[in-house]
What does this fold into?
Amino acid sequence: MNLFDVYQKKIETLLGEMSSAGELPAGLDLSRVKVEPPKDASHGDMSTNAAMVLGKPAGKNPREVGEAIAERLRKLDGVREVTLAGPGFVNFRLSPDVWQEIVAAVLAQGTAFGDSKMGQGEKVNVEYVSANPTGPMHAGHMRGAVIGDVLARLLTKAGYDVTREYYFNDAGAQVDVLGRTTYLRYREALGENIGEIPDGLYPGEYLKEVGAGMAKRDGDKWLNRPEADWIAPMRAFAVARMIENIKHDLDLIGIHHDVFTNEREIVENGTLEEVFKKLQDMDLIYQGTLPPPKGKEMDDWEPAELTLFRSSNFGDSSDRPLKKRDGTWAYIMPDIAYHYDKMRRGFNTMINVLGKDHGNYLDKMRPAVSALSNGKASITVMFCGMVKLFKNGEPVKLSKRSGNIITLREIVEEVGAGVVRFHMMTRTPDSEMDFDFAKVVEQSKDNPVFYVQYAHARCHSVMRNATAMFGAGVENEKFDLSRLNAEDDIQMIRLLASWPRFVVAAAEAKEAHRITIYLHDLASAFHTLWNKGREDATLRFLHENDRELSLARLALVRAVATVIASGLAVMGVEPLKEMHA
RNA sequence: GCGCCCGUAGCUCAACUGGAUAGAGUGUUGGCCUCCGAAGCUAAAGGUUGUGGGUUCGAAUCCCGCCGGGCGCACCA
It folds into this structure.
């Protein structure tokens, strides 16, 4: 239930009536007409720009149009205090019962309050994490992992049919390195002294158990045999183990993908050839020579004739090679084929969460997606900035070379999954962010996770007190919403009522971090209201001698807790009923 | 050199995607616990939204030019 949608429709109907009555021309474009909360609450509950948007096409002064709109608006049920302001805003208030009903709606819908049908069941593919299975999840992965997952939750809440996907490469050079390192660990497990891990292999301890696992499964059958014999089984075994490992680590922060796709499948089932043929049929493939890249020192540049894709037809800065000089596929080809595969599976909206260092991924992929779908499919990339870790105020040095990585598991064990998730969402995705192990668990209002959780816990504290005061089961007793008539009550409800709007706006913009902003506002409003009760006893939630008011206020408090929980659910964070030190 | 992103209070970030007087936190200085959890609330203060033009009823937001920053620019993966 989105009140703003309700009044948007009412106003559109009203404008239609004005056209019929000849007060406005027929066939006006209403798409820019909006109903939103005014920036300054003292202007009213809602505001519409209709008069300003329609003034010009109607050939009338906006204020004149506004006056006519106001006239009709005054006659609507639930509307009061219609005023004309500024350049032509029509502001109005809603009568208290309209607001009070929101509390009932929230309690009836529970955390589903704020769900929207905006997405209309459209299939969306959100691809995130997608780390190659060469090591455990570490600090560098957590930002993208959480951003992708929360975006998926948000889009689901907004009515999209979301598939969470993980794509990994189980071929290629990195995976060969994994295979070789596993072989070394395998020999170690069989009793050999392997000494230091040589340069160019993965030094991390985590491959020890993989090698041991291999030794357990296959015994010594791979010893003293050439690499050509053992590299494939080592790779396969290690990849399978690492994927299990990754799934397990992701589970620690509540992340579960629906689909795992690997590059090998795409390559082996002939998708590359199919895509290539398709592009050929569209006359988008030719043999040619590219100019050397500009602005870069190229000591070994040699012009060569290559098989090129006319990506510049689709806005790319230059055409791109799909085959190398030796005739084998260029590396972007599997990626293109993979996106073709997604489209073939019915996804016209594809979202990719990547690190900022993949800066030109979109440039490379968009032309292909556009060509292969005749412009129907879209690919969006969300770039994530780096997370800088701090311990005791000192930056944590990370070195993958020495195997000195901070794993996701360590972080989650130290601060908890909810804290990690919430913090990753406190900034726009592409900004850099500091993550201080001490600060993120600090129990003060400086810490947004705590602040929001505290508000939720306080709500539950009120519920506990209500039980103590009025006996068990008070929350199920009937309440009279009309008792919520203090301006502060209504103020609180207004904020609750705007939650569905936030969901829609955040989903439209694909900016899940806005949810944290809303939650912080809501928590702040609740803390404020709480404290007002200290100075003005009439605003307290519970009144021993006024059971009816207490029940109504208790309903309000439960609604606040419900909306906080609804927001935290989008974040994938478990709401706390009690804070404990 | 080219492409993408960014530039908002001293600092870290918002601003519901074109709306009215640009808001929070932090830092500084005050006030509030016999009272539902003071782990909180509250007052003051801080701005030519990098800059110069343009578009319109209206611009932090859209367009163009500068200035400054980040990332990317191979047939590597």
About this structure: The two ends of chain A are 38 Å apart (CA to CA). The mean pLDDT of chain A is 88. Residues 227-252 of chain A form the longest helix (26 residues).
